[in-house]
Amino acid sequence: MNYLTQSIVMLSFLVGICMTFCATGANANETQQPAQNYFSSGDNTPYLGWLSAHRDDYDNHIFLPKAGSEQSLDEGAALHWSIDNESNIIQIAVAARATGWVGFGIAEAGGMPGSDIVLFTSTSNDNQGPTLIDSHVGATSGMPIQDGCQNWDLIKSTSEDGFIIFEAERLLDTGDKQDRPIMDDSSPNSPPHRVIAAWGDEESVSYHGQNRVRGAVRFHGEGVSDETKFANTMAASSDGSVDITARNHPVTEDETEYARFCFSYEDLVNGGLPNDQEVQAIGFEPIVDPNSAAYVHHMILYAHKQNNGCNDFAMDMVFVWAPGEGPLSLPDEVGSTLGAEGYRSFELEIHYNNPSRDAGVTDSSGARVYFTSTLRPHELGIYQVGDPLLALGGTDVGDGLTRHDFECPSTCSATTMENDTVTVFRELLHMHEKGLTMTNTQVRDGFPIRSGSVEFYDFEQAGVYSVIQDSFALKRGDSFRTTCYYDANQGDKIGLASDDEMCIAFLLYYPKQTFPAFYCGPDHFAGEACTADYESKTLVDLGEIAVARGNNGVIDNSCGASNDDDNDDSASSSLQVGLRTFVAATFLAFAFTLY
User: What residues contact 242, with CB distance under 8 A and at least 6 apart?
Assistant: First the structure.
């Protein structure tokens, strides 16, 4: 396959599948709802009473609606929280309409695998009162396992007239391998934390049915959702927007379809872009047709400098979306120039996944591009490492546990970067459904200096994983080692199809470098400078993957660095044994599966 064909076909991807998800929308001047409006469609007297007494104890709050009730402030759970930066302690309060139990978790990819869960029951198995259990979930959506170290402390709880409200606290980073640290996510360039919650009326924790929620929380932020923040930012900073969407596109009955939609300069002007005026795109909002959302696997927006550039191979990727990702607001100093000397046409590519080969499906998904006439100093760029052009298309993934390594040499950035340093503000990791764990390690002068990773990749929850981290510098001469772990079956291959596998890391950066193909992978068309070395091997067991995960999810009784009492015979140790017995008995009876 030649490079021109690869440019059209093999760049046509990004990412996993989620068979159930909702459109992400944002309305101008949207504001955070007052907490007194939560649970308001029914009798919320117990919640209002608690709120009146404890409103000042918490700096932030958010309502997490049940799936299908996104516009409701009644069906779901309320989360309140405050962070003491001096003591590095977070205090939370979780409220739900329940009489038996409530669970709240920090979910790496948005689902149960790899999540860190605190479980509250209003009555313990020995009728000694409320119980709080620190637990975690391993690689599958199975039952939570009690942590060897109990790091959540119960402050108080309320169980009254159909409501449970529990308050608890812990360190932001406990040092416990079975806990997830709560990172500094205050920068808008960093993704928020993904959270989950569930509740029930049974005396002991059991299957929750539809009583479950998931969402995104910026713990160090302003207590508003990213969608709300995006809407307010665009209302304040943009001069307008233009929609680039499919228009009642008939989804084929093929299992996999890549559809391309062209938007000329005339189309953009008719859609609201100023004519012959240079502006910059500063925000991208996904528009997912609710009637066909289950079929939209991912979307990519390419930009061309020609008036009608769909037949031109010189194109730049400017926005990628897959389930689990929300809108993208560019940093204050970054934009993508449109019109005049900038991009003058767009190409929207949508990957449709139709495994049941349903007929009669139409789709109008795409993206809303916000622009400003106040030009910014830097242009957006996207650097790709791993196997971005699927040069290994058709290669067997392997039967069982496997590891695939891509070593991008330092010569790539050394020869393709005009600037000594660029700033990476978002790192996206991508595999498909057989992916287990992925790391993207940055190497400088032969030594690893940082690594973005997803320990428990959850294909069904997020088509792409955004690493929670600060912006970082990419210097000329830096290299990358991209590693993907899979649990595959014989016959599984690397490729474009929904049931094939991929291993790609996307780095959103500025200022944009002008080299025609700023990416690194096997068999790079420009020669050895950006050709990655590739190696794969079969793994005997999960040991190496456990190491890559930092041992998170490996069941042991060790605590964080502050715990030296593993063999203590005190009442605290006896309590842990009792709780462990209680949890085992409860969950062996009924697996706890959030999604």
Answer: 268, 271, 272, 273, 368, 369, 371
Cα Rg of the chain (Å, integer): 24
pTM to 2 decimals?
0.79
Cβ atoms of residues 495 and 481 within 8 Å: no
Q: How do the pLDDT tens digits run along the chain, 595 residues long?
A: 333 333 333 333 333 323 222 333 333 333 457 899 999 888 899 999 999 999 999 999 999 988 766 667 888 999 999 999 999 999 999 999 999 999 999 998 888 888 999 999 988 556 667 999 999 988 776 778 899 999 999 999 999 999 999 999 999 999 998 999 999 988 877 888 999 999 999 888 877 888 888 888 889 977 677 788 889 899 999 999 999 999 999 999 998 898 999 999 999 999 999 987 889 999 999 999 989 988 998 888 988 888 876 766 667 778 888 776 788 899 999 999 998 778 899 999 998 989 899 999 999 999 999 999 999 999 999 899 999 989 999 999 999 999 999 999 999 999 999 999 999 999 999 998 899 999 999 999 999 999 999 999 987 776 788 899 989 999 999 999 999 999 999 999 999 877 899 999 999 999 999 876 678 999 887 788 999 999 999 998 888 887 777 754 444 445 654 333 333 333 333 333 333 333 333 333 333 333 3
Of 438, 244, 232, residue with least CA distance to 336? 244
**152-189 b/e with 16+ CB inside 10 Å = b?**
bebeebbbeebbbbbbbbbbbebebbbbbebbebebbb
How many angstroms from the chain centroid is the CA of residue 393? 26
Contact 61, 221 (CB under 8 A): no
Coarse DSSP helix, strand, coil percentages of the chain, rounded to the nearest 5 percent: 15, 35, 50
Alpha helix positions (H), 403-511: 410-416
Task: Locate 554 and state its tokens.
Answer: 């490996």
Cα gap 459→444, rounded to integer Å: 31
Residues in the chain: 595
Kindly state the tokens that stand for 500. 């094939």
